[in-house]
Each structure stands twice: as structure tokens, then as C-alpha cells.
Amino acid sequence: MTDMITTGRRLPDRLDNPVKSAALSWESLLVLVALGIFIANSFASPYFLNAWSLSDLTFNFTEKALIALAMALVIITGEIDLSVASIIALASTLMGLALQYGADTPMLVAVGVGVGILCGAFNGFLVTGLKLPSIVVTIGTMSLFRGIAYIILGDQSFKGYPASFSWFGQGYVWWVISFELVLFLVAAVIFYVLLHHTNFGRRVFAIGNNATAAQFSGVRVDRIKFVLFCLTGLMSGIAAVLLTARLGSTRPSIAQGFELEVITMVVLGGVSILGGAGSIIGVVLAALIIGLVTFGLGLLNVPGIVMSIFTGTLLIVVIALPILWRMYKERRA
Amino acid sequence: MKLWTLLAATATAAVLMAAPAAAQTRIALVVKSLGNGFFDAAAKGAEEAAAELGDVELIYTGPTAATAEAQIEVVNSLIAQQVDAIAISANDPDALVPALQRAMDRGIKVISWDSGVAPEGRQIHLNPSDIDLIGETIIKLAADYLPEGGDVAILSAASTATNQNAWIEAAKAAIPEKFPNINLVATVYGDDDSVKSTEEARGLIAAYPDLKAIIAPTTVGVVAAAQVVTDQNLIGQINVTGLALPSEFKQFIDNGASQAVALWNPIDLGYSAVYLANALVEGQEAAPGATFSIGKVGEVTLDDTNSAAMAAPFQFDKTNIEEFSKIY
């Protein structure tokens, strides 16, 4: 009798069909969107399908996307870092200052990356050590870091970076493959492994879903958050090196407004702004989509304001879509 | 799928917008940011020049945010479109250099106008005017209506503003020789902020009872000063002048708070930029001492940094403010 019951019922080891759930996942939606925009671009402009055009396209997003990788982890834990663009400004300014004292290329890179990590650690200390909300802390340091850059530079600029330094922002590793792109791809793989295939990554998700429960399960919540703020600082420092090298100069207004573009990439990539969910593949695809949209519309000389409307609409539609889908399913059920 | 509808709509719009490329010279006029009356007027002049030259297609473009990074994205897309020339008013003299050098490496002619790029990032720079001409003009605007001479004061922008400081230096240099009976009593700074400029203008009027003119070489300061003179019923006693946008300033020419103001003419500027870019595409060499024709505006000669000054600031008074206030 009991035998019959067990053989009669098949107990699946997961509720959704894995193929179906992969097809309905956020990432596959983003892949479709990216492909659609790519095809639309190819038809719309005769200049799009050209190796150099596609290479130029990547410069529109690599620096911001590098920061977005680390920002994704911060947002998954339920925190946020609004100071990333100001960290770029401060790191770039101090690199320029080091240049005035005769620093060579390795020294400049060390200064940029080092300043980034220190700024991140400062944010991390205020959030975890003093238990201040990260949105308040980083709104403060957003003004603070850029303010220091303005005090040092005023309306002046630093320039005259050595050619070996410019290579970081303008150089090509092979043919049209830029150093910036290679660095981004390597960083994306590292962050993918870190978030999805390590204990550290599991703990990041645990904190985002329920920080208190994570704490009682033995996760050192504050230490992980501190490390994540240092990571966004590090990535901002790296972005500062790339951007400064690409522009060949530093002004205190450098990277103005980058923080919102970075957060747009993260949210478009499917990371929950409330924390607890998200993937690196999604963020990488979102960066690619934003790059494709802005460059494609640029090729058609569409005014920038129309581009902002387009990215804004894209963001709202993509975020509203799963919610509408859930409402639709609930109504049918 | 809403997204698909959106994408399809964009693709359709995109196809419609992609004009068939004829065998034409394509010149891109890149501005600091779109939605700015000054640059829209420049584009109007550029269109006029393109029409006069015949086989020139003008691309008027620029970023929404006035940042160097956004402008580089615009330049990158123009490089990809293989335009023949780029004429840019730059958001940063240095940061645009690598991107524009890449454009020149790929055979695109590059000039800057209005707000310049460092010499290694462009072939020609067209200044709307030059420092000495502006310095002299702002004093002349006051002196023309003060035959007996008298006390004047300057209300500037921020004390760190590079442009304004250079003009004020040039103005001070011109006074002893050309305007001996003009007495500059003070220079104050309103930081291009309406409230601060208003306070500074009130302060000047209180501190110098014999003040005959306030010269504000900034579009924010000049409006603030004219408003103060109007509010304090000093029309006829104190003449406000300086650099002003006709559309913002028309009411003060009309009510008599100001006799005349000046500004570069953006229409002529856009017009001349297209003429210069076209001359380079046609093979004229940009070298110190070379002379270029800029159509109806005349001609310019390049100095040793390959930059040229278009003309003295264009004067607006009762006779022409009506017409120009509609343009910018």
C-alpha cells in the first residue's frame, strides 16, 4: 500500500521547471533587450557595425560599470554608496597633485587606487562603526570628497600626465580591444565568482534578506559591510585612474553625476534596491544596454535630452514589468 | 510586451531620422549643452552659412549635461559617423583633447569656437572677440553716454572667474589712454548669483553717491544692477551697462535704466565657425598668419597659437534690442 503511494507521486526537487525559469529570468529578458537594441542600431545607422565604432562604444560605460559591480554588492546588503563620483574626483585630484611632485606612472596608479580605498574605508567606518545610515553618510561624503578637490584645484586643472599613464584610459591591448574593456571583463568574472560562488557572497545575500538573522547565524555583518564599502572605494579609485588617463587632465568637476548612472545600471541589472537579490550577469548586461542605447542614439544625433528620457523610460518599464507580471498572475490564480 | 513596442517605435523613428547621406561636406556643430538660447542662436547662424556654402550638411548636437565626459561621448559618435569637420564649444579645454586628437588622426578637421580647446586638440580656435576688445568695449559703453566723464564701478562675477578678471584688467589698461575722464572707483563681485549681485549693487550705490554708471561684464550681474536702479528710482542718474543677453535685458533698455549693452553675436559666431571648418575641409592650411574668409562677417587672421578673434562685442540699444531679444 505505502509503496503504491510513493511511486504514484513524483516529488520534484524544485517547484519551477529549470528551463522555464531560466527563460523567464531577468537575465534572459536583458539579453533580449540588448539584442533588440543591437539589431535596431545596425539597421538605423550605417556606421554602427564597424569594429572601431563598437570599440568606441565600450568607453561610454566601462568606468561606470566597474563601479557598478561593487555597488551591486553594497545594494544587495541593503546599503548604498552615493559618494562614488566624488571619490573619483578626489582620487583624480590627488593623482594630479602627486604628478606635480614628480610621481611616475606606478606611483600615480597607487595614489589613485589608494585614495579610493581610504575614502571607501572612511564611509565604511561611519556606517559600521558609528551605525549611521549609509544614505546619510554618503550624501555627506559626496560633498566632502568633491569639496576637498575644489579646495585644492579651484578653477584650475592638472594636466601633463605621462604617455605611459594615458595608456590606461586610451590604450588597446589587441587591435580594437581596449585596456578598459579587458579590465572590466576580468573584474566582472572576479565579482561573479565572489558573489555567486563563495561563502562571502552567500553572506552578502543573507545580510540583505535579514541582517538580524544573519547576525545571529554567525555572519559578521559589520565586517562584511565595511569590506564592501572599501570595495566600492577601490573600484572608484580604479575608475579614477582610467577616467583621468582617458581625459588626460583633472578638474574638480570630473565624473559629475556618475553616481546616479552607476545606480541606474545596478537597478536595471535586476538588483533589488531593497537588498537581498541580484546578479552580476544582470549588472554587466545592464551596463551593455545603457552603452548600446546612448551610443546608438548618439550615432543618429538624437539630442541628449531624448536619450535621458529613453533611459529613464527603460528603467521604469523594466522595473515595472515583473511587478505587473506578478499582479497579472495573481489575478489569474 | 511593452518593451518590444517601445523598441519597435525607436527603431522606426531611428530609421526615419537617418537621412540619406549624399556626397556632401558634413560639419558638426557641437555645443556645451543643448537647450541653451545662446547656442540655438549659434546654430541658426551655422545653418545660414551651410545654406550659403551650398553642399554643406550641418549636424547640430551636444550633450544635455554640460560636462566634458558627456561631450566626449558626442565626439565619439561623430568620429564613428565619419563627419568631415567638428566645430566645438568645449566644456573643458584639456579633457576634450585626447578625443579630438583621435578625431584628427582619423582625418576629421577640428576647430573650437566660443570656449576653446588647448592648441594640441584643434586646428583653429575662433574667439568671439578678444580680451582687449572686450575690456575696451565695456568702458566705452559707459563713456559714450558720459561726455563729461565721471565715477563708474564694476560689478563682476566670481572673484576667481578667469574671463571676467582678464576683461577687467584690459579695461583698467584702456582707461588712462582712451577714456581719461572716466574714474573707476570700485570693483565688486556678485558671484553670478542674483541675490548677491543685487546686494553688491545696492552697496555700490550707497557707498558712491556720485556714481554715474555700473558696468557688469556678466549677464547675471547686469540684470541685478538694472533691477536695483529701477527699484530705487535712479533711472537717468545711473546708467547700467555691460555684457547682457538681449532677451533678458530688453526691459531695462525699454525703461531707460540702461542706454546700451553689448555681447558677442552668437549668430555670427556659429556662421563664422562653419565657414572656417569648411575652409579646412576644402584644403586650406591652418598656420599662424593665415587669413580665412568668414563670409559676410569679414575675414580673420590666425595668431601664433592658431586662434583668431571674430569682432568687437556687438552693441544693443533702443534701435535693435527688439529684434535681437527674439533671438537670444
Automatic annotation (TrEMBL), chain A:
GO cellular component labels: plasma membrane
MF annotations from Gene Ontology: transmembrane transporter activity
Membrane topology: Multi-pass membrane protein
Main location: membrane
Residue intervals passing through the bilayer: 21-45, 65-95, 107-126, 132-153, 173-195, 226-245, 266-299, 305-325
Subcellular location: Cell membrane
InterPro entries: ABC_transp_permease (IPR001851)
Keyword field: Cell inner membrane, Cell membrane, Membrane, Transmembrane, Transmembrane helix, Transport
Domain of life: Bacteria
Signal peptide extent: none
Pfam family, one: BPD_transp_2
Subunit field text: The complex is composed of two ATP-binding proteins (LsrA), two transmembrane proteins (LsrC and LsrD) and a solute-binding protein (LsrB).
Purpose of the protein: Part of the ABC transporter complex LsrABCD involved in autoinducer 2 (AI-2) import. Probably responsible for the translocation of the substrate across the membrane.
PANTHER family assigned: ABC TRANSPORTER PERMEASE PROTEIN YPHD-RELATED-RELATED (PTHR32196), AUTOINDUCER 2 IMPORT SYSTEM PERMEASE PROTEIN LSRD (PTHR32196:SF71)
Protein name in UniProt: Autoinducer 2 import system permease protein LsrD
Organism for this UniProt entry: Devosia elaeis
Automatic annotation (TrEMBL), chain B:
Key words of the record: Signal
GO cellular component assignments: outer membrane-bounded periplasmic space
Single annotated GO MF: carbohydrate binding
InterPro entries: Bact_Solute-Bind_Prot2 (IPR050555), Peripla_BP_I (IPR028082), RhaS (IPR013459), SBP_2_dom (IPR025997)
Matches recorded under Pfam families: Peripla_BP_4 (PF13407)
Compartments (UniProt record): Periplasm
Keyword RNA-binding in annotation: no
Signal peptide: 1-23
Example GO biological process: rhamnose transmembrane transport
Domain Periplasmic binding protein per the UniProt entry, residue ranges: 27-285
Cross-referenced PANTHER family: ABC-TYPE SUGAR TRANSPORT SYSTEM PERIPLASMIC COMPONENT-LIKE PROTEIN, D-XYLOSE-BINDING PERIPLASMIC PROTEIN
NCBIfam families associated with the record: RhaS
Family: Belongs to the bacterial solute-binding protein 2 family.
Listed name of the protein: Rhamnose ABC transporter substrate-binding protein
Lineage of the organism: Bacteria, Pseudomonadati, Pseudomonadota, Alphaproteobacteria, Hyphomicrobiales
